[in-house]
Amino acid sequence: MEMEPRESQVATVSQREQLMVESKVFQIYNMFGDLPRNAQSLMLELQRDNHMEYLTGGFRQLGPAFCSLDANRPWLCYWILHSVALLGDAFDDEVESNAIDFLNRCQDPNGGYGGGPGQLPHLATAYAAVNSLVTLGGQKALSSVNRDKLYRFLHQMKQPSGGFSMHDAGEVDVRACYTAISVASILNILDEELAQNVGNYIISCQTYEGGFAGEPGSEAHGGYTFCGLATMILINEVNRLDLTRLIDWLVFRQGRECGFQGRTNKLVDGCYSFWQGGAFALLRRLSSFVDEQLVKPGTGGHCSTDRQLSSLSVGEEGLNASSSGNLNDFGYNFIKRHPEMEPLFHSMALQQYILLCAQEQEGGLRDKPGKRRDFYHTCYCLSGLTVCQYSWSEEEESPPPASAVFGPYSNLLEPIHPLYNVVLEKYYEAREFFTSS
Amino acid sequence: MASSDEENRQWIPFQQRPEWSDVTPIAQDDGPNPVVPIAYKDNFVETMDYFRALYQADERSPRALGLTTEAILLNPGNYTVWHFRRLILDALGADLHRELDFTETIANGNSKNYQLWHHRRWIAEKLGTNATSKELEFTKKILSLDAKHYHAWSHRQWVLEALGGWENELYYCDELLEEDIFNNSAWNQRYFVITRSPILGGLKAMRASEVNYTVKAIVAYPENESSWRYLRGLYKDDDHMWVNDPQVSSVCSKVLSAKHNFVFALSTLLDLMCHGFQPSQEFRDAVDALGTPDSDERGSDLATTVCSVLERVDPIRVNYWRWRKSKLFQAV
């Protein structure tokens, strides 16, 4: 890979900012390249102990600066708990029990979870709380979710457009669709009523670029793209998307810096290692749909309007053979599908970015060199890293070959279920629990 | 640091404010051993304790409105407070123009927050067309500081669709693109305008002039992905026209023959061929001139050669170009 910044007349803000980031990143890569072998492997090591220390500290106590995240505490739980689970570690029983108790205090008496005790229930924090409890696992955590009331909450958030509102009279966007559908699916309470018209809403957010926007008309963006794609898979309507345009947009989000950017001509950011990388993990299991779009005679797979009209009767080509199949099974069937496609992004390059540019040696991960670590980026950089490591694996559970893991093999993280972004083993436990209760 | 000291000095605890003496504050129910506990500052704790008291009592009063102001200043991300504030504003029939000023104050601190923009949309919806010019000015101001501000763009699009004000929007896009041709948000807005503005007549009516504009932008900066994507988007409804429009193939040809920054030109050529475009010998020559392919690929079809060149010159996407190559026989 080229390591020198381009020499060109720098004119615009976009170009200047891009060159500044490239120069910082390439400085790191060049410095790395000049190191002796043993120093290199040291630098590529995932600093597990330091990450654990950073995560444990935050779970125990956060400083006054976190007042700005006072309405996001289930998110803080999820970012930390999921990171710890990815590292193959866990907090001790007492701390886990405290976490269950705390999340229960965020649960609204009428269903759903708010950003803290006594706060209005909100779809994003409900997603974070449920994923936290799934990650904690065990009878006590899983049974603490009031599913009947959560279902009612989801129903109340449902909009006539097919989308969801984040909270009572809140904003409607693709994030809301994903968090609602993901929560319903993992808790085994997804039904036709909740899923109705969600697909139409998501389709209206796929832009001319190929990625998804938060709302119809807005710009294609990595976070919304993951949310849009995952939602369509969970409701078994992914064949209605223009997948070839989506892939074409996605592959161009990885740049010379080796990491992903969130939007065209924006700067690289470690968190998109998951939002974009995760979308690639999903695509690996969609090759039959992609192929179908590629070979469509006359349209060549790029004509969306015809296809959307013709495939409004979904189900016959779905992940499940029977169109009347239980909506809750699509997340499970998906992970059981054989991944027929090789990863279409550069997994080694992305791992290099995460380990050398996003990782802080003292613990925690970040957006890019020059930025400070935080729990959000720690969670999504590590989530991106596991996606990379398993990106060639045939079976989601089996350990990947050493050649797929950048740096020492001890960097290997736990595999995830990419539709929900929870550790796979935890997902199976929750699936078992919620389908049998 | 000085300013926060000052704030602390000016801030009078609720317990010392006579107008609050009838209210019993409610502490946060964090439990005995909370996880992710935040070391709140004293004023944060007290403000939120009083907020909880009024929120639970559903007191929609002027003092409650004032309290939400204080709570929002302490944490603009607290959607519960914003939500309650809207209930109060409704109940009091408050002056919503003043409310716009309040959101502007919050935006000056940190404008990347869903709640602020949702609130702003709520106000503008109530004010109707009275708010149009103010909202367009407000977003313009935010975009002058950060031309890719996602929330600001979404809000602006909502204003245009709900309240109108399309008259100068294409000109505004021109302006922003003139400043920074790589600003993809401005390209996206341009697409929004030409496809949705009731004045311009839609994509079909705008296509010819937009293709001209975009081709010029591509020739000036062939490495600019935004303009290439926009060009493709101009034919979103009509692949046949895209494949057969000589302006599309000729801009590819032009960039290829310059032998510089040609990845998007090659990628477009590949897509065109996959959709049935029949390349002339001129294209074959231009691609061959980009580098000698491996001996076993000499004489292979042009699409295969294009993929091979892309694998070499665009190594970060090597897996993708290989995959595209492997799918060629299905698509062509």
Automatic annotation (TrEMBL), chain A:
| Cofactor note (record) | Binds 1 zinc ion per subunit.
Keyword tags: Metal-binding, Prenyltransferase, Repeat, Transferase, Zinc
Q: Which cofactor does it need?
A: Zn(2+)
- Keyword Cytoplasm attached: no
GO biological process terms on file: prenylation
Question: At the top level of its lineage, which domain of life is listed?
Answer: Eukaryota
Supply the enzyme class, top level: transferase
Question: Start and end of every Prenyltransferase alpha-alpha toroid domain?
Answer: 46-422
List, alphabetically, the SUPFAM superfamilies matched: Terpenoid cyclases/Protein prenyltransferases
- List the Pfam families: Prenyltrans (PF00432)
Q: Is the keyword Calcium assigned to this protein?
A: no
Catalytic activity line of the entry: L-cysteinyl-[protein] + (2E,6E)-farnesyl diphosphate = S-(2E,6E)-farnesyl-L-cysteinyl-[protein] + diphosphate
Recorded hits in InterPro entries, A to Z, give: FTB, PGGT1B-like, Prenyltrans, Terpenoid_cyclase/PrenylTrfase
Q: Tell me the protein family, please.
A: Belongs to the protein prenyltransferase subunit beta family.
Q: What does this protein do?
A: Catalyzes the transfer of a farnesyl moiety from farnesyl diphosphate to a cysteine at the fourth position from the C-terminus of several proteins. The beta subunit is responsible for peptide-binding.
Q: What does the subunit comment say?
A: Heterodimer of FTA and FTB.
What name does the UniProt record give this protein? Answer: Protein farnesyltransferase subunit beta
The organism encoding this protein is Rhamnella rubrinervis
From TrEMBL, chain B:
What are its cofactors?
Mg(2+)
Keywords from UniProt, A to Z, are: Magnesium, Prenyltransferase, Repeat, Transferase
Q: Which reaction does it catalyse?
A: geranylgeranyl diphosphate + L-cysteinyl-[protein] = S-geranylgeranyl-L-cysteinyl-[protein] + diphosphate; L-cysteinyl-[protein] + (2E,6E)-farnesyl diphosphate = S-(2E,6E)-farnesyl-L-cysteinyl-[protein] + diphosphate
Q: List, in alphabetical order, the Gene Ontology terms for molecular function in this entry.
A: CAAX-protein geranylgeranyltransferase activity; protein farnesyltransferase activity
Q: Which Pfam families does this entry report, sorted A to Z?
A: PPTA (PF01239)
GO CC field: CAAX-protein geranylgeranyltransferase complex; protein farnesyltransferase complex
- EC numbers listed for it are 2.5.1.58, 2.5.1.59
What does this gene product do? Answer: Essential subunit of both the farnesyltransferase and the geranylgeranyltransferase complex. Contributes to the transfer of a farnesyl or geranylgeranyl moiety from farnesyl or geranylgeranyl diphosphate to a cysteine at the fourth position from the C-terminus of several proteins having the C-terminal sequence Cys-aliphatic-aliphatic-X.
Q: What is stated as this protein's family in its record?
A: Belongs to the protein prenyltransferase subunit alpha family.
Full protein name: Protein farnesyltransferase/geranylgeranyltransferase type-1 subunit alpha
Question: What organism does the UniProt record list as the source?
Answer: Rhamnella rubrinervis
Q: What is the lineage of its organism?
A: Eukaryota, Viridiplantae, Streptophyta, Embryophyta, Tracheophyta
